């Protein structure tokens, strides 16, 4: 879940192009790029292919569908405090995953959240997206990434630990875990 989402949303293009062609360990190729306001319909179609349990894990609420306001907030971002990456399939442009980074105003801490469509899981997409967002955050000078996860979301917690996050109980809600990764000593390597 994203904690820092109090940004002004201008829909301006990012200063630096953070679009990339990526390939996963399984050989799956995809393109990652910042979301644009005209992605809102395609993003809605993407979330229709996300399982109800994964929606709950992504948004930490029991929503059955992702409403228009939420879709707009994920496609019209300021590209400074908040970035919203879309992973798209090169053959047809369909969105297969989203990865958001929402930072505090000082750009010191970034909350990361990923979601993958049900038919594209276990291909290595989230691994590559988390690495992409880490390189992006390092380049922006972000000092720490964090992600709030349901304790029952074993897949996400395991994946994040494999990518260098540490897990601790989230104070105030025993159903949640706080995953964190320090970036101070990393280089962007993008
Ligand atoms: C959790 C979630 C994001 C994982 O997405 P995914 O794209 O299926 O994950 P990946 O394919 O990248 O990783 C799956 C496995 O392949 C492994 N893998 C992927 N790329 C790898 C690589 N380059 N080298 C070695 N192992 C790799 C991962 O370690 C993981 O193994 P594990 O299950 O033993 O931990 C997905 O299930 C999801 O959308 N969940 C709901 C939303 C959610 O939980 N969001 C919170 C995350 S911030």
Descriptive notes:
The protein has 190 residues and is an alpha+beta fold. It has a domain at 20-142: Aminopeptidase (3-Layer(aba) Sandwich). Helices cover 26% and strands 27% of the residues. It has helices at residues 40-47, 52-59, 68-75, 125-140, 154-162, and strands at 20-23, 29-34, 82-88, 95-103, 109-116, 144-150, 166-169, 176-182. Strands 1-2-3-4-5-6-8-7 form an eight-stranded mixed β-sheet, sandwiched between helices.
Would you count the extended β strands for me?
8
Q: Roughly what is the average pLDDT, rounded to an integer?
A: 92
CATH architecture call of the domain at 20-142: 3-Layer(aba) Sandwich
Task: Give the biggest sheet.
Answer: 8 strands, mixed
Strand percentage? 25-35%
CATH class of the domain at 20-142: Alpha Beta
Topology:
Elements: E1 20-23, E2 29-34, H1 40-47, H2 52-59, H3 68-75, E3 82-88, E4 95-103, E5 109-116, H4 125-140, E6 144-150, H5 154-162, E7 166-169, E8 176-182
Parallel strand pairs: 5-6
Antiparallel strand pairs: 1-2, 2-3, 3-4, 4-5, 6-8, 7-8
Helix pairs in contact: 1-3
The structure holds coenzyme A.
Coenzyme A (COA) is lined by residues 24-25, 54, 57-58, 112-116, 121-127, 147, 149, 153, 155-156, 158-159, 162.
């Amino acid at each position: 879940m994203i904690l820092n989402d109090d940004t002004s949303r201008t829909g301006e293009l990012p200063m630096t192009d953070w679009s990339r062609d990526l390939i996963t360990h399984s050989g799956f190729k995809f393109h990652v790029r910042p979301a644009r306001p005209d992605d809102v319909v395609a993003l809605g179609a993407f979330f229709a292919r996300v399982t109800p349990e994964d929606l709950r894990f992504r948004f930490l609420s029991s929503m059955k569908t992702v409403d228009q306001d939420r879709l707009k907030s994920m496609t019209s971002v300021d590209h400074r405090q908040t970035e919203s990456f879309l992973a798209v399939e090169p053959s047809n442009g369909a969105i297969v995953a989203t990865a958001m980074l929402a930072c505090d105003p000082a750009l010191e801490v970034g909350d990361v959240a990923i979601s993958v469509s049900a038919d594209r899981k276990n291909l290595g997409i989230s691994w590559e997206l988390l690495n992409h967002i880490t390189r992006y955050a390092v380049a922006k000078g972000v000092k720490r990434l964090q992600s709030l996860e349901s304790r029952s979301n074993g897949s996400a917690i395991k994946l994040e630990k494999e990518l260098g996050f540490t897990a601790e109980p989230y104070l105030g809600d025993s159903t949640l875990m706080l995953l964190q990764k320090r970036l101070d000593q990393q280089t962007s390597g993008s």
